[in-house]
Amino acid sequence: MKYNKYVFYVLAFLQGLVFYSAVAMLYRLERGLSASQIGIIEGIHTILMVMLEVPWGYLGDRIGYKKTLLLCNLLFFISKLMFWQANSFFDFLAERLLLSVVISGISGCDIALLDNSIKPQERARVFGVYRMVDAFGCI
After folding, report:
1. Considering its fold, how many domains does the chain have in total?
2. Cα(95)–Cα(27) distance, rounded to whole angstroms?
3. Does residue 133 lie in a domain region?
4. How confident is the model at residue 38 (pLDDT cuts 50, 70, 90)?
5. Residue-range definition of the domain harbouring residue 46
6. CA 87 to CA 21: how far, in whole Å?
7. Under 8 Å CB-to-CB from 102, ≥6 apart: which residues?
8. Is the pLDDT assigned to residue 20 strictly greater than 80?
9. Looking at the domain assignment, is residue 126 inside a domain?
10. Which residues contact 108 (CB under 8 A, 6 or more apart)?
11. 31 lies in a domain?
């Protein structure tokens, strides 16, 4: 448990490395999608992500935060492989639907497990570093 915060720092940095985000729309356009299809996919992704927040929170409480995070990070990796191999509207939609499941599953469980792993007097510093590392990954 005492090393969890360091594992979370590494994971936050790696998940922040969304190196393809700047060219994802261009990639999708090159693969034959229109801008309106991309907008539809992103809209569905956002709606589903919000709808799954509460069910994932309940499931995370039931099966444990660690198992939930392991499952979601495995699915996160699979979604990146799906993005790389996608060639059609439905391929990209499937990738974003899986990503909706992943993001809503990770959201909250990461903070809850991290909070359970640290002393109360460390909270401000640990969460500050956690968010900082996540932001550095996005640069």
Report:
1. 1
2. 14
3. no
4. very high
5. 22-121
6. 17
7. 72, 73, 75, 76, 79
8. no
9. no
10. 53, 56, 57, 60
11. yes
